[in-house]
């Protein structure tokens, strides 16, 4: 059984989607959370829901930040520690997707932004958090993607960033052991606001359903459940693991009609 009672968790990218679902689940399991995002209105809504779900009505620490700026990454950590004085769990969920085609005039500047948010910010936050997590025998869960394993030329910079994140997970698992466990969860298609930004989200979602063996789209709570497991003592035997939660997309028959 997963028990996060009184654990302190910093969850980035938690104003909606997977991050919000994780914050709500952690709160319901008794954790004290710090939530981070760029949209204050969404953050306040998630914070209110977290408080209502918390058995002890813990109020989250709410941090508005944009991880394209190093100073916001540092401030996020400092505000979390200032409020809670300790840290048990770091969930690196903040991420940026990109559909810029290779060779387009602004592709390189877009690539830099993707790497900054998806990789550099994770590295920086991990560096800051590691000493505190060592004191609590804590845990890090990085939210990667099936794109780290299954290439998509149309999202080349995103794929590269998530592949780097998987390798960072493995390297830090070895570096921070035995005091800190570091694992990754790699979702496939998940019903988040990412799809609403596409030209025809319904068509994309329908196509994903047809391609994957389980014939469904993951909901944010599906991924949050895996994150909670990896963060908890129920996964005490796991570190350096890359855990797929992709509705079977990686093992789909490429020739199936």
Helix and strand layout, with pairings?
Elements: E1 8-11, H1 17-28, E2 32-37, H2 40-53, E3 61-64, H3 70-84, E4 89-92, H4 107-136, E5 139-143, H5 156-176, E6 181-187, H6 193-196, H7 201-211, H8 220-231, E7 242-245
Helix pairs in contact: 1-2, 1-8, 3-4, 4-5
Keywords: Oxidoreductase
Pfam family, one: adh_short_C2
InterPro entries: NAD(P)-bd_dom_sf, Sc_DH/Rdtase_CS, SDR_fam
Main sheet: strands, sense, barrel: 7 strands, parallel
User: What is the CATH H-level superfamily?
Assistant: NAD(P)-binding Rossmann-like Domain
Taken together, the total number of domains comes to 1
Estimated share of beta-strand residues = 5-15%
Number of E-type strands: 7
Alpha-carbon distance between the two ends: 40 Å
Order of helices and strands: EHEHEHEHEHEHHHE
**Proper CATH architecture:** 3-Layer(aba) Sandwich
At the fold tier of CATH, the topology name is Rossmann fold
Poorly predicted runs are none
Radius of gyration: 18 Å
Question: Can you give keywords for this protein?
Answer:
257 residues; seven-stranded parallel sheet; Rossmann fold; alpha/beta; 8 helices; globular; 7 strands; 46% helix
If you had to describe this structure to a student in words, what would you say it looks like?
The protein has a single domain, classed as NAD(P)-binding Rossmann-like Domain (Rossmann fold). Helix content is 46%, strand content 13%. The chain has helices at residues 17-28, 40-53, 70-84, 107-136, 156-176, 193-196, 201-211, 220-231, and strands spanning 8-11, 32-37, 61-64, 89-92, 139-143, 181-187, 242-245. 44% of the residues are buried. It contains 8 helices and 7 strands. The chain has 257 residues and is of the alpha/beta class. Helix 1 packs parallel to helix 2. The radius of gyration is 18 Å and the shape is globular. Strands 3-2-1-4-5-6-7 form a 7-stranded parallel sheet, with helices on both faces. Helix 5 (156-176) links the parallel strand 5 and strand 6.
């Amino acid at each position: 059984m997963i028990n996060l009672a009184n654990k302190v968790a910093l969850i980035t990218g938690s104003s909606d989607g997977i991050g919000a679902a994780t914050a709500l689940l952690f709160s319901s399991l008794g954790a004290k959370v710090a939530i981070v995002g760029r949209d204050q209105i969404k953050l306040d809504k998630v914070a209110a829901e977290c408080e209502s779900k918390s058995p002890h009505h813990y109020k989250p620490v709410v941090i508005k930040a944009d991880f394209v700026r190093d100073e916001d990454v540092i401030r996020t950590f400092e505000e979390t520690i200032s409020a809670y004085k300790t840290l048990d769990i770091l969930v690196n969920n903040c991420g940026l997707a990109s559909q810029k085609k290779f060779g387009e005039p602004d592709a390189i500047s877009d690539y830099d932004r993707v790497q900054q948010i998806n990789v550099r910010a994770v590295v920086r936050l991990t560096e800051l958090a590691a000493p505190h997590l060592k004191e609590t025998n804590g845990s890090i869960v990085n939210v990667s993607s099936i794109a780290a394993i299954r290439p998509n030329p149309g999202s080349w910079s995103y794929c590269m960033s998530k592949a780097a994140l998987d390798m960072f997970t493995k390297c830090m698992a070895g570096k921070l052991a035995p005091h800190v466990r570091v694992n990754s969860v790699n979702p496939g298609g998940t019903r988040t606001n990412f799809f609403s930004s596409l030209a025809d989200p319904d068509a994309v979602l329908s196509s994903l359903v047809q391609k994957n063996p389980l014939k469904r789209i993951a909901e944010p709570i599906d991924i949050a459940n895996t994150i909670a497991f990896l963060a908890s003592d129920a996964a005490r035997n796991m570190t350096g693991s890359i855990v797929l939660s992709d509705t079977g997309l990686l093992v789909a028959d490429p020739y199936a009609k």
